[in-house]
Amino acid sequence: MIARKDTDTEQLNQRLEKMSLDAYDAYISEGDLIPAHTVETYFKEFMKKEGLSKTNLVRGSGLDRTYAYQILNGLRHPSKDKLLALCIAGRMTLKEVQRTLKIGQTGILYPKDPRDAVIILCINNKIYSIDEINNILEQKGFEIIR
Asked: How remote is the C-alpha of 23 from its chain's centroid?
């Protein structure tokens, strides 16, 4: 899978609206193309950039150790909550969290969803403890991150 680098999505959508299927090969051969991330590659790059080890990330996530390593090694397709736990343990910004959720194809955090809004507020306020976020979610009457 590939993604076009540094190009406005709206412009690409407009081009694709006018393009025939026969023009696909030419479209793909143009411009800067990069391999699309997988959850595994995105976390690998993120951990390298931030100087994080898998061990610390897994420990901070509160996830079962084996399951978390399987996610990070690309052997499991995680749920939204499992990805959130790893993102929070990695102290990701909201933008990084949303990117991870998109890559994992679990759906991003949606500000109109009350539970998601609480999680967004926690991330924006730099609350990076799963236990603390789960306490806040419970206090507000929402399901915890599992």
From this structure: 32
Mean pLDDT by 10 residues, the chain (146 residues): 60 84 78 70 95 95 96 95 98 96 95 97 96 97 96
Q: Which two tokens stand for residue 123?
A: 């991330």
CA–CA distance, 25 with 29 (Å, rounded to integer): 6
End-to-end CA distance of the chain: 30
Give the DSSP letter of residue 145. P
Taking CA atoms, 45 is separated from 22, 49, 112, in Å, by 35, 6, 30
Name residues whose C-beta falls within 8 Å of residue 39's C-beta, 6 or more positions apart in sequence.
Answer: 71, 72, 74, 78, 83, 100, 103, 104
pTM of the model: 0.79
Please say whether the beta carbons of 38 and 46 come within 8 A: no
